[in-house]
Amino acid sequence: MLTKIWLFIKRDPLRRGIALAFAIFLYMHLNFQLSSDKHLIRVRVPVTLALAPELQEPTGQTPEISLTLKGKPGVEFIHGSVQISVKVGLHNRQSDGTYLVKVTPKNIRITNRKFSLHSIDFPEDGNLRLNLLSRGERHFRIEPVFNGTVPSGKKLKWQTVPDKVLVTGPENVLSELHKLHTTPIPLNEAQEFFEFNAPLHLPEGVAAAPKKVLVRVNMYTLHSKRSMRIPISLLLSPQSNVSAVMIQPPRGGAELTLKGPAAKLAALPHDQVRVYVDAVDLKTFGKQRLPLHCNINIPGMEVVSIVPEEAEIMLTPKTSK
Fold first, then answer.
1. Residues facing residue 313 across a β-bridge
2. 141 forms bridges with which residues in the sheet?
3. Burial call 238-267: b when 16+ CB within 10 Å, e when fewer
4. N or C terminus: which one in the chain shows less Cβ crowding within 10 Å?
5. What is the largest CA-CA distance in the chain?
6. pLDDT one digit per residue (tens) for the chain, 321 residues
């Protein structure tokens, strides 16, 4: 075989040498192309979106593009060695509400130099259609959520610092929000006043600044009012030389209005309450108008009113038996 090639070249060395060299080059080039084209890899790559401030990507909906890569035979492809990023703005919005961007080789970065881009397979012509959300921001008030039972006769009063937070997220989510809630604040064994740093409970895809609020809780005693009719008694000193009677006492006694802890006030018996006229130090005979006083044996009670406020009494000399 080699002898025949030598005899072929010997007849016209220049032209036939050039032809042979070209044939060898063409063979090696085609062989390289065929061997390279046989090592094609099709991959799906997530797309990183650089969104305008007014836009937001839906949660859990990362777009992907299908590529075909060309690499050297025997080289293993490592996922993550290809990155795709595109910018999306309001100018990409279409009449149907979607956003259309064109992915080109300029948007594709391959960190493994043993691979190169062969083709963009999907979407067709690299036209990537996206469903994006309009992004908004507004302030919302905070309402704490409590975990536990408020003791009987107690009521909660709370304050959050700050009282409002700035919330950003999809407009369709923000439009449904009226206020934000905290994660549950424990009440079991809580003191009458305490502070708690409570994280906010946020809808998916929504962010708040700050993410926590300080909740100041005051567990105060619940007060109520109660009316009672109590007979009026006269208070005299046993050593006094006067006797006293009430002139036209109100039927059934005085109308007493009390204020105090709701549970104690509801259970207050009549015999623990006394309405009286204090005539202990009086020595002048005749009619006198004296104020009514009230004494309650259970602490924490407050007298709101006594009707009537005064009583008329008659003082006379005490007769000896």
1. 246, 288
2. 164
3. eeeebebeeeebeeebbebebbbbbebbee
4. C
5. 175
6. 545 554 555 565 655 556 556 556 555 655 555 444 457 889 999 999 999 888 888 877 789 999 999 987 777 888 888 999 999 998 999 999 899 999 999 999 999 888 889 999 999 889 999 998 888 889 999 999 999 888 777 888 999 999 999 999 888 888 888 999 999 999 888 888 999 999 999 988 889 999 999 999 998 888 889 999 999 998 888 777 788 888 888 888 999 999 988 888 888 999 999 999 998 888 788 898 999 999 998 888 999 999 999 999 888 887 765
- Write down how long the chain is: 321
pTM over 0.85: no
Helix axes 2-11, 13-37, angle to 10 degrees: 130
CA–CA separation, 147 and 127 (whole Å): 52
SS3 assignment for the chain: CHHHHHHHHHHCHHHHHHHHHHHHHHHHHHHHHHHHHCCEEEEEEEEEEEECCCEECCCCCCCEEEEEEEECCCCCCCCCCEEEEEEECHHHECCCCCEEEECCHHHEEECCCCEEEEEEEECHHHEEEECCEEEEEEEEEEECCEECCCCCCEEEEEEEECCEEEEEEEHHHHCCCCCEEECCEECCCCCCEEEEEEEEECCCCCEEECCEEEEEEEEEECEEEEEEEECEEEECCCCCCEEEEECCCCCCCEEEEEEEEHHHHHCCCHHHEEEEEECCCCCCCEEEEEEEEEEECCCCCEEEEEECCEEEEEEEECCCC
Angstrom CA distances, 128 to 84, 272, 310, stand at: 12, 84, 90
